[in-house]
């Protein structure tokens, strides 16, 4: 069995989707106390199903080709630092694909991929938002595999998170003849009126996800943090204290991967807020004081 190095811990950042996990990844990637893979989302714990594994490996192979193309372009342009960075990303991706396709008994190959990065770092990290939807037995296995692991669940204003997730979906699905703004609002319409794209809502179901995490993760190993507080100049200190790493000043612009702005149709906004009303109330009661942005959107529901 793989043995964790003493005094080292693993962070699982389990979401929420479009709630700042990329921002936190960038911060930890550049942190002197951390050894973070060049691949942000490992998707190890959510791909035990053969079909899910095959789909994820296919996606990773597409990204691997993109990385190789970027490396070739950097070599032609004489950008040596980009070449070295691309090589590191390519190597990490190739090893991860081998892990997903290989023997998962004991999870040792995954742990070697994640933590086999020297003995100096105090923290390793797998930042895969989809882990928030893991069934109880898989989440328990994940925690047992790394007894010193810690879990962070970032929560962003529910309406902002929902709209950001929808815009990401629209960018990924848009055909050349489709208008991006119209497609995003059409996705929201289908969510509100047809009960479609349910995975978008599931990824931001704060009450159910937090209840599950609190049931399965020891209290001292779980942090639920507001995205809006995290990205403030002094807001990262709460997270670094929880992780046991030094509090270094962020050098990451916020937000990351936000995508181009799109205006939500006025006729859809009130219904979207109504759909999320329970989340605002539950978080206020069970997590803590709501950041200003949450309070602004919440106030629209009672205006």
Explain what this protein looks like in three dimensions.
The chain is α/β, with parallel strands linked by helices. It has a domain of 208 residues: Rossmann fold (3-Layer(aba) Sandwich). The chain contains 13 helices and five strands. It has a five-stranded parallel beta sheet with strand order 2-3-1-4-5, with helices on both faces. Helix 6 crosses helix 7 and helix 12 packs across helix 13. The radius of gyration is 20 Å and the shape is globular. The N terminus is likely disordered.
Strand order of the largest sheet: 2-3-1-4-5
* Number of H- or I-type helical stretches: 13
Task: Note the overall shape.
Answer: globular
Instruction: Output the structural class.
Output: alpha/beta
How does CATH name the architecture of the domain at 9-34 and 121-302?
3-Layer(aba) Sandwich
Helix content: 40-55%
Radius of gyration, taken over Cα atoms and rounded to an integer in Å: 20 Å
In the CATH hierarchy, the third-tier topology of the domain at 9-34 and 121-302 is known as Rossmann fold
* Uncertain segments: 1-6
Residue-averaged pLDDT: 92
Draw up the topology in text.
Elements: E1 9-13, H1 21-29, E2 34-35, H2 50-77, H3 80-101, H4 108-115, E3 123-126, H5 136-145, E4 150-155, H6 158-173, H7 180-194, H8 198-202, H9 206-216, E5 222-226, H10 227-230, H11 237-243, H12 269-286, H13 292-302
Parallel strand pairs: 1-3, 1-4, 2-3, 4-5
Helix pairs in contact: 2-3, 6-7, 12-13
């Amino acid at each position: 069995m793989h043995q964790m190095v003493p005094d080292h811990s693993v962070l699982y950042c389990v979401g929420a989707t479009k709630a700042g996990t990329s921002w936190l990844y960038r911060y930890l990637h550049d942190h002197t106390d951390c050894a973070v893979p060049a691949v942000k989302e490992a998707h190890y714990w959510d791909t035990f199903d053969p079909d899910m594994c095959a789909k994820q490996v296919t996606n990773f192979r597409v990204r691997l080709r993109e990385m190789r193309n970027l490396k070739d372009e950097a070599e032609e342009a004489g950008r040596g630092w980009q070449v070295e960075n691309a090589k590191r990303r390519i190597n990490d991706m190739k090893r991860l694909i081998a892990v997903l396709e290989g023997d998962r008994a004991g999870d040792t190959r995954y742990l070697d991929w994640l933590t086999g990065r020297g003995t100096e770092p105090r923290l390793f990290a797998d930042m895969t938002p989809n882990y928030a939807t893991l069934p109880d037995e898989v989440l328990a296995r994940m925690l047992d595999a790394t007894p010193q692991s810690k879990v962070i669940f970032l929560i962003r204003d529910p309406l902002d998170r929902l709209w950001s997730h929808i815009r990401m979906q629209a960018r990924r699905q848009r055909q050349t003849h489709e208008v991006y703004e119209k497609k995003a609002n059409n996705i929201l319409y289908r969510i509100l009126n047809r009960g479609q794209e349910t995975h978008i809502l599931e990824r931001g179901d704060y009450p159910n996800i937090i209840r599950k995490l609190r049931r399965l993760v020891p209290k001292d190993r779980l942090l639920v943090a507001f995205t809006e507080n995290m990205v403030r100049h002094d807001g990262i200190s709460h997270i670094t204290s929880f992780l046991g790493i030094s509090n270094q000043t962020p050098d990451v612009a916020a937000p990351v991967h936000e995508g181009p702005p799109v205006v939500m149709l006025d006729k859809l906004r009130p219904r979207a807020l109504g759909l999320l009303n329970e989340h605002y109330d539950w978080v206020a009661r069970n997590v803590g004081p709501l950041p200003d942005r949450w309070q602004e959107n919440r106030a629209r529901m009672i205006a």
